[in-house]
Structures are given as C-alpha cells and as structure tokens.
Amino acid sequence: MAADPKDTTVTEENTETAAEAVAEVETVASAPTSPAQKLSAEALIKAFETEQMKSDLPEIYVGDTVRVGVRISEGNKERVQPYEGVVISKRHGGMNQTITVRRIFQGIGVERVFMLHSPQVANIKVERRGKVRRAKLFYLRERVGKATRVKQRFDR
Fold first, then answer.
1. Helix/strand/coil (H/E/C) assignment for every residue in 71-96
2. The model's pTM
3. I need a surface site. Which of 16, 47, 83, 87 has the fewest CB within 10 A?
C-alpha cells in the first residue's frame, strides 16, 4: 500500500522531530521573502539535516568492536538495548552514514546496519580498536570460531 503524500498523521515516535520540523518551517515562512534572502528547497533540506546530525559520535573505524545502544519501544515504554559486535563496513557520509555490525548469537552470525544519526541509535561506544588492512571485512562471514577474531590495535 503506497503512502499518501498529503497524509499528516503523526505517531508517538516522531512527534518531537515533527514538531521541530514544523517550527523550522514556520521560522522560514516568517522570514523575509525578498529575492536576496529567499531560501531554496536545497538550503532548507541542508539546514534541517545539519540540525539533526549528532555531534557526540566517536571515531569509528572498520574492525572496531562497538557497543551500540538501540532504542526499543515496547508498548508505551522505551528502553535501550545494547548490541555489541565488529564493524565490518562503513558506508556513505554525512547524515546518511551507516555502519554494519556483525556478531555471533547462539552460533549464528547476525549483522545489523545502523544509521549513525538515527534517533533509534541512543549511543555508540568503542570497546576495542581493530587492526585491519581492508575497508570491508566481508571475509569474516565465511570464518568460524576463533578465526573470526580481529587483532587489537593500541595506537588509536
């Protein structure tokens, strides 16, 4: 089912961001509309994205073991669940930056992709620095047991 572009329903999850977006649109709408000060759609999007970006993210490299705090809402409660694993890839940049984290759970490899600036990511902590020589560690998918370990790096 396709979403209606005129649909303005607001769920509990995005009420804060929706309110901020409405406030920003109102301030832009109340701004003077002279040709010199008129904001383009591109400038509006760029301003909104810079406002939403997180500034407290640590330096994350491929090969690092990280603990990502993921916000989970159960009913009307919200909690933060840690997800710990090895960063096997980094993609994109800026607002769309993502990392893929791999961990072994009950003998099965589980990978999750996290958008770093997403509201669902509560916090990220680097547990260990990894010493690797590749930009993507997809070769770890074929490895089993102790062969999946990444050497530790002490200089960062």
1. EEEECCEEEEEEEEEEEEEEECCHHH
2. 0.72
3. 16
